[in-house]
Amino acid sequence: STYQQKTFFDQFIETCHSKNIDTLIHCGDIVDGVTSRQGCQETRFLNTIEEFEQYTAENYPTFEHNYILQGNHEKSLTKFEPGYNFCKRLIELRPDLTYVEPGMPIVGPGIVMISASHGGGSCANRKRQRTDRLKSKTIQLMSEGYIGHIFVSGHCHIKSYIPQYMNTVIIGLGCFQAPN
């Protein structure tokens, strides 16, 4: 959308590369999609599946280990084409990317197990509710048999950090979109 903070994102990626970071995990909402959020149509500069695919394929960064998950914004593109999966299509265009299903363990640097998910639900109460939902999502993934030293989640576009919960670390990922 027009709210993307591409300059900050590019600076972040440049910093990662300068520090020899070789792994990137994106927990969904790579694109703004066609959500029903009020004003979404006015702030979008991409309007077709093909435009979303081309823009992302050309602008998404390259890392040695590059993982992506589908978020609710990508899922919204099924309004154009039922059953469409943006991330699965993106890995066809960008074979350097790896698509992972929510909770699927990713082996990170130092053999650290990372469990990634997009998350979900309302993000209206940004502080307390966010950490409670991150803990609930972690418990849900654990009860489904997913493991991880670190659990990462997207969706609310704000950063959260829980350094110790049930012998794991939980990280809520932020985003590069104003006004977040």
Q: Topology of this structure?
A:
Layout: H1 6-18, E1 23-26, H2 40-43, H3 49-59, E2 65-68, H4 72-75, H5 86-93, E3 98-99, E4 105-107, E5 113-117, H6 128-143, E6 150-153, E7 160-165, E8 168-172
Parallel strand pairs: 1-2, 2-3, 5-6, 6-8
Antiparallel strand pairs: 4-5, 7-8
What this model shows, in words?
This protein is an alpha/beta fold and 180 residues long. It is built from 6 helices and 8 strands, in the order αβααβααβββαβββ. The strands form 2 sheets. It has a 5-stranded mixed β-sheet with strand order 4-5-6-8-7, with helices on one face. It is globular and about 45 Å long. The model has no long low-confidence stretch (mean pLDDT 87).
Give me the strand/helix succession.
HEHHEHHEEEHEEE
Contiguous low-pLDDT stretches (5 residues minimum) are none
The level of helicity is 25-40%
The order of strands across the largest sheet is 4-5-6-8-7
Rounded average pLDDT: 87
Number of strands: 8
Termini gap = 13 Å
Structural class: alpha/beta
CA-based gyration radius: 16 Å
Q: Beta-strand level of the residues, as a percent range? A: 15-25%
The major beta sheet can be summarized as: 5 strands, mixed
Count of helical stretches: 6
**What coarse outline follows from CA principal-axis ratios?**
globular
